[in-house]
Write a structure and sequence with these properties.
By secondary structure, the protein is α/β, with parallel strands linked by helices. The protein contains 11 helices and 9 strands. Helix 6 links the parallel strand 5 and strand 6.
Length: 309
């Protein structure tokens, strides 16, 4: 029996396949319910605190929308400068304070491991909305939901992950979920931005088939899913290194049309230059449908950790 009541959602590593499938089922059920009415009444009287120490559009707004669609309320801040962190307050003290006001916390923070730190002192569930270049488990779950929705099943697919695999918390979390399915992965990145070797070796020891390349065109001929990511300027201490790598891979319509038939394109967004706008009208361009799925997954997680489902 899967039970998430009171649990923290910190990393893609924490889930097994049964738990992933349970979250997807709840998210899909909530998606169906919202087709007939604008909001539910599952979390009336409960409060979500959104603590965003780093900029965010989709993650913060979808968490807030998710709680409101469930019938609950939202408090929080959208940048560290508006919180007592600007006065020198520790992360732990901020969390202990907010736990006095809220029933669940969604948090984004620039430091790897910050969500785990928060969970050590929290008396309410912590939902990790991204900890630096570490993990982004709720994004990975919405990515999995999107893959299943777009393709009907996950087993048997070849998934190409493209771009900044070194610093990409979205791909770091996603591969931890994908490893529970019968998939092949292609890691497409320049040498400087390759997937961290400890992640690659861990996946191989789990039995995952992995190819690594720096050629996007070859990956497109094999992949059922291509997951594009931006090169993250904020993760570079040397601006010249960013300038050298920022346009390493740019996906355009002609490249997609020369790739495998029926290919689906995903992106955690925001995009910069890595997907040309001429791709947007292709039937396989699923990144804005992917955004919508974030609402349902985060609704599911909030309801589950609060014990409402």
């Amino acid at each position: 029996m899967v039970n998430f009541k009171g649990k923290h959602i910190l990393s893609g590593k924490q889930f097994n396949r049964e738990e992933i499938e349970h979250i997807l089922k709840v998210a899909s059920d909530l998606r169906e319910e919202l087709k007939s009415r604008p909001s539910l009444d599952l979390t009336r009287g409960n409060i979500l605190a959104t603590l965003f120490f780093e900029p965010s559009t989709r993650t913060r707004l979808s968490f807030e929308s998710a709680m409101l669609r469930l019938g609950g309320s939202v408090i929080g801040f959208a940048e560290a400068s508006t919180s007592s962190t600007a006065k020198g307050e520790s992360l732990e003290d901020t969390i202990l304070t907010v736990c006095q006001y809220a029933d669940v916390i969604a948090m984004r923070h620039p430091q790897i491991g910050s969500a785990e730190r928060a969970s050590r002192v929290a008396t309410v569930p912590i939902l990790n909305g991204g900890d630096g270049a570490g993990q982004h488990p709720t994004q990975a779950l919405l990515d999995i939901l999107t893959i299943k929705t777009e393709k009907g099943a996950i087993d048997g697919l070849t998934v190409a992950l493209v771009g900044d695999l070194k610093n990409g918390r979205t791909v770091h979390a996603l591969v931890e979920l994908l490893k529970h399915y019968q998939v092949e992965m292609i890691f497409v990145a320049p040498q400087e931005l390759r997937m961290p070797p400890e992640i690659t070796e861990s996946l191989k020891s789990f039995g995952v088939k992995i190819k690594e390349t720096d050629t996007l065109s070859s990956a497109l001929k094999e992949a059922d899913i291509v997951y594009m990511t931006r090169v993250q300027k904020e993760r570079f201490s040397d601006p010249s290194e960013y300038e050298k790598l920022k346009d390493a891979f740019i996906l355009n319509r002609a490249m997609v049309e020369q790739g495998k038939a029926g290919i689906t394109i995903l992106h955690p967004l925001p995009r910069v230059t890595e997907i040309s706008t001429d791709v947007d009208s292709l039937p396989g361009a699923a990144y804005f449908r992917q955004v919508r799925n974030g609402l349902y997954v985060r609704m599911a997680l909030i309801a589950l950790v609060l014990g409402k489902i």
